[in-house]
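Figure 3 (text version): structure tokens given as input.
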């Protein structure tokens, strides 16, 4: 399974939400934070 957390508006703490709320609930998930594209 692949999950992407994106948002087009400014800083809304996507990395914080992903690392502390989403990643622990996905067993064996690898977490990659990409801050800029």
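Below: residues designed for each position.
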């Amino acid at each position: 399974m692949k999950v992407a957390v994106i948002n087009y508006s400014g800083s809304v703490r996507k990395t914080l939400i992903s690392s502390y709320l989403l990643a622990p609930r996905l067993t064996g998930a690898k977490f990659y934070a990409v801050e800029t594209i």
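Residues 13 and 35 are 11 Å apart (CA to CA).
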